Model the fold of this input.
Amino acid sequence: MKKLKDFAFIVVLNSVVLFGFHAQENPIDKKVQDLIAKMTLEEKVGQLFQVSGEEVTGPRGEKINITEYIKAGKVGSCLNIYGTKNVMRVQKAAIESSRLKIPLLFGLDVIHGYKTVFPAPIALASSWDPEIVRKAQKIAAKEMSSSGVMWTFTPMLDIARDPRWGRVVESFGEDPYLVSVMGRVSVEAFQGESFDKKDSVMATAKHYVGYGAVQAGREYYTVDISKRTLWEIYMPPFKAAVDTHVASVMPAFTTVNGVPMSANKELVNDVLREKWRFQGITVSDWNAIHELINHGVAENGADAAVQGINAGVDIDMVGGDYMNNLAALVKDNKVPVALVDKAVARILKKKFELGLFDNPYKYCDSEKEKEELLSSANREAAREIARESIVLLKNDNNILPLKMKDIKSVAVVGSLAESKRDIIGPWCGIGSEKDTISVLDAIKDVIPRGTVLNYQKGSEIEDNNESLVNAAVNAASKSDIIIAVLGESSEMSGEAASRSSIEIPEAQKTLLKWLSITGKPIVLVLMNGRPLDLSWEDKHIPAILETWFPGTEGGNAIADILFGKHNPSAKLPITFPKSLGQVPIAYNHLMCGRPATTETVTQKYVSKYLDIDNEPLYPFGYGLTYTAFSYSPIYLDKKEIKIGESLAASVVIKNTGKVDGKEVVQLYIRDMLASVARPIMDLKDFKKVSIKSGDSVKISFTITSDHLKFYNKDMEEIIEPGTFEVYIGTNSRDYQKESFKVVK
Ligand code: BGC
Done:
């Protein structure tokens, strides 16, 4: 058993050397130290305090005038203040009236677009196209950076495996590799090549770590993760973001091993900073330091402040415990001033790197703001990105795209069809429904002249009545086809939006059942922020399109797909279960002692349910297209490699359908025999390719040591010799298979 420790040692050594070199040579470090030398303790603490909007909650809950605080040098950064005019006004107070004229940072949750709203992150991940994600985040960076904001609290890198959890919508899904890839391109897109650029802004990897593991999907609830699961599943996206030099990291609200992340020295200081050499800022989640009291681990605000700063949390977002207590704690020798200085240094360094000391108004450019926000180019990109993010789940008899020459009348049903607010989803920057294209608008726009369009709401999101349903059924009965736009409102997912049911809300489901009784063909267009239980729909509805929350141009993108202007190619970044009873469910579960295979499933003592099979409704990586692809067997250039060597695995994919299309080719690997139980498969790589109708393309993957290593019993990363299976396919269920050996 050869360990990769030597290799790991060299990597760490290199980064220490590099780090040391930078620390000595970097002129910014000197400027930072010079400035710190001039600061009073109160001014230092001010840098660690972040305020929201223009009011601050004071020690006794009273509202404080933020401008006075800024003038006194008691604020280091703001969130939720945006727009050139507002930012300039607030920045002016720091620059013109504070003693040391230290510029403020302005941050905002730019989660899926600033003014032009892109599909929600779960939808962006569905594109399985890093360049599409990069494009969306780059435009978001351009828009926000012209509007005063230089710091986004995105990407959210939490692994999401429980559809009840509302924040699934903000995630890139269930798989550590896919989330890492999408996280990395997001960081690169926001931060650009260097912070010198006017449209480079700071990104935040959040919520470090394990937030997605809240039990029963209940927001802010208990987390209990084994060390192995933490390191194999939840940590990799954060490591990838740190390796991409993400500027900031936000610890989660939740606990790991009983320790709330805002007080988790082991994971924040020891792992993030010391082991991974993270150089940026850590910012607490909203009031999370103060909430250490509610967690029952801090006695009061002062105790919370001690624990937060000791853990390595630099900025106290809105809570005020640092602001109220840190200076006194330092004076009483309860917190070493060196700890405060280090946190201040990290914040000042970013302000220097962003160029704010040279030009505090660098990101305030009202001309550019006017040009950039919601420009026609940005809207066009939003439409393209939305089209790439919509997953075709079902398409019996190729009912889609709609064959309009045979269709004389269309019924559009569902209140989401006309909703301009829900379609842009939760946490949509400063996006507005006024600027949004609804599904109904878009269909009206493209439906051929002479075709009758019958629109009926049929139901509210969570409420209906007989007359609404009757009107919809009447409209449906006199139409050739029904487009039912159903699902969740935007408030039904996002933060503090867990659900105990993952079905389409009952009012709309009832409507759908009535519509199906008409016998007319139905195309179900879904909007939702989480995997839904679509078992009934899958059985009764011929075509299902998962659009998530597709954004400002969502209506047009949906119409492009319905009417065949665009061939869908997105795939699910998260498993859709058959029922909530299967949750938690993820494709890469461990091998177990009594698996239910085709041979054993009828036996009693195997891993299964009595009332449902184990298979999900739609597996991870699944999604249909208007064409079809065939896969050749896998060709391996070597059947045996030594530890440290690599091999190539390739397949030839043919577009056997009538239209050009794109395919997401997925590579999974399974370690057949190891010293600890390994997953039945793990996504290791993927490629999205365009293939013209009738054409074939050869796709090759290089399998390296990185793809074969795992944590052994001592949590050391190693590769063990033995047999590995390789799967290349169209999703985690349908693939070609080969195997190779690794020898010493
Ligand atoms: C959320 C964070 C967000 C912060 C600031 C919190 O409630 O958990 O994701 O960045 O608020 O808006």
